[in-house]
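Hi R.,

Here's the input for the zinc ion complex you asked about:
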Amino acid sequence: MHDLVLEGRVLRDAFPIEAYIFIDGGRISKISRQAPVSGEYGELHRLGRSLLLPGIIDTHAHFRDPGMTSKEDFASGSVSAAFGGVTTVIDMPNTRPPTIDRDSLQAKDKTASAVSVIDYGLNLVITNGSDLLAVDTLLKGIGNVPAPAGLKAFLGETTGSLVLEPISSLARWTSVLENTGAVVAIHAEDGSLFEPVKDPDKVKDILKKHHGSRPPSSEASAIVKAVNALGRNAGSAHFLHVSSEMGLEAAKTSSATVEVTPHHLLLDVKLSGLDPEHQALGKVNPPLRTPADRAALWRGIADGSVDTIGSDHAPHLLEEKDRGYLSPSGIPGIETMAPLLLSEVSKRRLDIDRFMELCCSSPADRYSIAGRGRLEDGYLADIMVVDLRKGRKIRGDDLHSKCGWTPYEGKVGIFPEKVYSRGELLIEGENLCGKPGRGRNIRM
Ligand code: DOR
Ligand code: ZN
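And here is the predicted structure with zinc ion in place:
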């Protein structure tokens, strides 16, 4: 007797085949072409010709909880994620207070476990003042609090002001990284190469100015310095939101891994897709780049030099984004990430197998998240159901983030029809079926 059977299409060597996914105790027990006989299952969900894909693992979200919960909180952020097919999220530590030690990690875990509708991990920030031994202990899961999913280092100034400097001081962390096998997620921008902007309140060409003031050379420089500092542990580094051709070239020559974001793939300083009147909506760190940089990131996706895609969901309120060049940096995007990428799949710009690697299996492998990111026997039944023929226009009003806007207004996204998390129906069309607090820490 199986708890649940899903009838739909699964991909085998990028080819859809009709199949049945048998689910028991939240895990996939088998995937078979053979229909179950009646009496062999508790429930059967017939999903027609829709594709059954693994749930998205987004290893880069800023849920703003605690401290900036008017922009987002763990409840709203996790719901927004779920509607975008994300079944596991890693939250970033630049909250107020930051997730920096045992107490702040435990407090954030308490909030998340009480309200999150999806499973989650929490990154811990490392700064100049960090206590190495305490971080080592937390990473080993000692101390009555679930271990951090990974570490985060901000090498350049951005929301939260948690810069680790000089970049060479990353070298202090090599033995912690070696002892624990932890990933250090790196925001790579070298502040010594930033060009200050004069009269920021008068800037008109916001995106070009921002790109010039935090140039690709600052990204490449931070990557080179970080790789040098980490030495033989450079493979512990996961360079986040690599935005430029120079940055990607610098990362390629190392054993580190690379994340890119949907916004650096789909938007640029030439305002492709962005309303010229509201350029500040596209202000983000690292900045949106040129069409040539965007093309280089797509080439990196095709040739394997990009390892993961993360949303870098960084919501700010519209009234904060109404201050021209003085607006805070950050773009919301956890709910639109998979829908926009699936649109690219339907346009044949992205292979569906590559999509699943970048958004599901590689994030799981990179952060050692066991039993997730693939549809295989024994894996958790985190599944999104999509019909690649059914796109719809993205509208900020339809999304579930507290911030209420998107830079992708009017673009077409392919949203999941249903989402299952550990075999439980979480999303069905417009309806949220999962209860707040059902989400679990992946390090439990
Ligand atoms: O633009 C950004 N916004 N870049 C970051 O690194 C942080 C993020 C935020 O938290 O707002
Ligand atoms: Zn970020």
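One thing worth noting: The domain at 55-366 is CATH 3.20.20.140 (TIM Barrel).

Cheers,
M.
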